[in-house]
Design brief:
The protein is built from six helices and five strands; from the N terminus they run ββαβααββααα. By secondary structure, the protein is of the alpha/beta class. β1 and β2 form a beta hairpin. The chain is globular and about 55 Å long. The chain starts with 13 loop residues before the first strand and ends in a 27-residue tail after the last helix.
Length: 207
């Protein structure tokens, strides 16, 4: 028995959207848009958070091979600070859809809110990445592309352990910020711990 549903409606070309990195202290927020064949099935595809890194990478290869169309986009920390993380997440999704070659007719998005895109009909689905293949596929692509990005920039800023925490607010990441200050990749509008501890330290340069 299949865990997820193939589509929300079957009359229009449907794209699934999801993001990765919304709750991080550092790095961009990534979003992916995926259009899958109507008859696509997978016993392994699920919410990216429920899968191991190895399975996510295997699924990424499969998704990119079978998808009718897909795209991954990002919004930088500087942009996040200007427009806030919620708007940045939607902007990343809009950018991903802008990159698609296919004509989009219907949107399904993980979560309970969305900023309309080109007046297209859409449906917000809470925990949609565990309910629909295209949203789950988008969660896989957004997560794996963002992880790769954080691995890359971690080489220049090893003190933050981004290769492990991916920019999320772990205890060690918070301590590293308080000890070394922020980097160019940190979101300056995000608090490290409590209101008394400011994130506006002297920026740390790449090592």
């Amino acid at each position: 028995m299949w865990k997820l549903k193939s589509f929300y409606q079957d009359e229009k070309i449907e794209v699934g959207l999801d993001e990765a990195g919304r709750g991080c202290l550092a790095g961009p927020v990534f979003a992916a848009a995926v259009i899958l064949p109507k008859d696509y099935k997978s016993s392994m595809l699920n919410d990216s958070k429920q899968l191991t890194e190895k399975k996510r990478l295997l699924l990424r290869e499969e998704i990119e091979e079978v998808a009718l169309d897909f795209a991954v986009a990002q919004v930088s920390p500087g942009e996040i600070d200007k427009i806030n993380i919620h708007n940045a997440s939607y902007l990343a999704m809009h950018r991903a859809m802008d990159m698609l070659a296919s004509v989009i007719e219907f949107i399904i998005v993980d979560g309970n809110r969305f900023i309309p895109y080109r007046d297209l009909p859409f449906e917000c689905i809470v925990k949609g990445d565990a309910k629909y293949y295209s949203i789950a596929a988008a969660s896989i692509l957004a997560k794996t592309y963002r992880d790769e990005y954080m691995y890359k920039i971690s080489q220049d800023f090893p003190c933050y352990d981004w290769h492990k925490n991916k920019g999320y607010p772990t205890a060690d990441h918070r301590k590293a910020i308080l000890s070394h200050g922020v980097s160019e990749h940190h979101r300056k509008s995000f608090k490290v711990t409590d209101p008394q501890l400011k994130l506006f330290n002297k920026p740390l340069k790449a090592q």
